[in-house]
Specification:
The chain is of the alpha/beta class and about 325 residues long. The protein has helices spanning about 10-25, 40-50, 70-75, 95, 110-125, 150-155, 160-165, 180-200, 210-215, 220-235, 255-260, 265-280, 285-295, 295-310, and strands at about 30-35, 60, 75-80, 90, 100-105, 125, 135, 140-145, 170-175, 205, 240. The strands form 4 sheets. It has a 5-stranded parallel sheet. It has a two-stranded antiparallel ribbon with strand order 3-4. It has a two-stranded antiparallel sheet with strand order 6-7. The protein binds adenosine-5'-triphosphate and magnesium ion.
């Protein structure tokens, strides 16, 4: 996976980063909003890195990824015997994150009954383990992210208004990539360079027609999609220049299937594309990719080595 540092060249983003720098050292809660793939998680990590809490481990929990009960015990922990199967005490993530920053990712998915408990962390700085009678003091800086309109959820009574106001002390909105033309261009150069470097390739040059194509696309998947597109284009192009036709934008599933399964492709080539596409899907996690592909990690590693010697990777 290519670099995970936050870079931006767009004036709106520069302003936003300045605000982020200014508030990084405070303890105020932050709500980061923006479409999927705009860099909300990256911005949260950036803020943590600029805070006095930077030397502590950054904690993150995705509220959409865990079912209600598990989310509650993950966040708050439990005492031995709190429920069947709780055979020993578990310290929750809020307690583990004491003195650090805590990202509540996709906060809109937090169930209502847990929202009340989150409010208590914010207001009273305390948590209570499940099945416990005492409260524990915690000092965590909460950063929440969402790609939904929380205000609408408040109106529909799906999100507590008091929690919304409490989180929204410092709202940071990341504009979609299509509204940041300078970023489309500069991040394309940067990702090309990083991808070539990480894969031991000579840095290819993006032609002006390639840049034009990149700038005229709407990027519904934002920076994540741009990053994947550049990575795919660099890895599959075998030339010094990457022109318009070698910029492989996959804007829907059907098209992406076509990219992999074109008649006229050799089995080896189709296999290579499928492997690269799967790695892209798993964000270069080889273990996961091998599992999806139904091959061993060793086979996957050997294939990648083979592509590298063919100078395709
Ligand atoms: N300004 C940036 N500079 C460099 N890389 C970026 C930038 N913004 C986003 N990225 C990269 O794009 C990808 C998506 O970013 P991130 O996961 O932070 O987005 P997100 O807004 O949290 O997305 P989602 O809503 O889908 O969770 C990551 O690989 C991240 O490193
Ligand atoms: Mg995210």
């Amino acid at each position: 996976m290519i670099g995970s540092m936050l870079h931006s060249f767009d004036p709106k983003m520069k302003k936003l980063l300045k605000v982020a720098d200014t508030i990084a050292t405070s303890k105020a809660s932050i709500l980061i909003t923006g479409e999927s793939g705009t860099g909300k998680e990256l911005l949260a990590k950036y803020i943590h890195s600029k805070s006095q809490r930077a030397s502590k481990v950054f904690h993150a929990v995705n509220c959409a990824a865990l079912p209600d009960g598990l989310l509650e015990s993950e966040l708050f922990g439990y005492e031995k015997g709190a429920f069947t199967g709780a055979d020993q005490r578990k310290i929750g993530r809020f307690e583990q994150a004491n003195n650090s920053s805590f990202l509540l990712d996709e906060i809109s998915e937090m169930p209502l009954h847990l929202q009340a408990k989150i409010l208590r962390v914010l207001q009273e700085n305390e948590v209570q383990r499940l099945g416990g009678s005492e409260t524990q003091k915690v000092d965590v800086r909460i950063i929440a992210t969402t790609n939904k309109e929380l205000k609408n959820q408040v109106k529909r009574q799906e999100f507590r208004e008091d929690l919304f106001f409490r989180l929204n002390v410092i709202p940071l909105f990341i504009p979609p990539l299509r509204e940041r033309p300078k970023d489309i261009e500069m991040l394309s150069y940067l990702f090309t360079e990083l991808c070539a470097e990480e894969n031991g390739l000579n840095k290819p040059k993006l032609t002006s027609s390639a840049i034009l194509k990149l700038k005229s696309y709407k990027w519904p998947g934002n920076v994540r999609e741009l990053k994947n597109t550049i990575e795919r284009s660099v890895l599959l192009a075998q030339t010094e220049n990457i022109n318009e036709d070698q910029v492989l934008i996959l804007n829907d599933d059907i098209q992406s299937q076509d990219q992999i399964l074109q008649t006229g492709l050799s089995i080896a080539e189709a296999e290579k594309r499928l492997i690269l596409k799967t790695l892209e899907h798993t964000e270069q996690n080889r273990t996961k990719a091998a599992e999806i592909l139904g091959i061993s990690i060793r086979t996957l590693r050997n294939k990648l080595k083979e592509y590298k010697t063919q100078r395709c990777l």
